[in-house]
Amino acid sequence: MPILILKRAEYMINIVLFGAPGCGKGTQAQRLKEHYGIEHVSTGEVIRDEIHRGTELGRSMESYIAQGKLAPDEIVIGMIANYVAAHKEAKGCIFDGFPRTTVQAEAFDKILAENGLQVDMMIDIQVPEEELVKRILLRGKDSGRADDASEEVIRARLNVYHKQTAIVSEYYTAQDKYASVDGLGTMDEVFERIATVVDALK
Fold it and tell me: CA 104, 126, 156, 151 torsion: positive or negative?
């Protein structure tokens, strides 16, 4: 789930770009980066980079990702806290894959508040589960990622998402900060739906 941060006159507009694995968050985050001139930080890519480099964090995270499990909250929250503190003067950022749990969402609110920021809206990209499985399997053939090549692991990831992550939408709905967009159709069509929500906040 990416977070788009756009600079406004006195503060940044923070958008949580949300959705299940395979919904196209990464693709749309990249397009938003190019369209609005902001940064894109994928927490998933950061973790995979740690694994590739064989760091202590990477080794501890590898078993979670291989099993389709979520990263421990304390590790992800700490990483995001450091990033926000270091980039609070940036024009904007897209955080891809955070927050994934209500605990992370609550911690993220505190992190932003400490830096004079807040979440303004969550944009949820909605895609049917069978379409998600099909997309991820296809992606796995190209990427070679083990967690994208096994349907069993993919469905485990989606199950974790539905049980632990989807409820994050309820957290932002309760704050009147939730909007959903249809994730089916061309990349252009999905992007236009997201941009319409973002432009309304600018």
Answer: negative
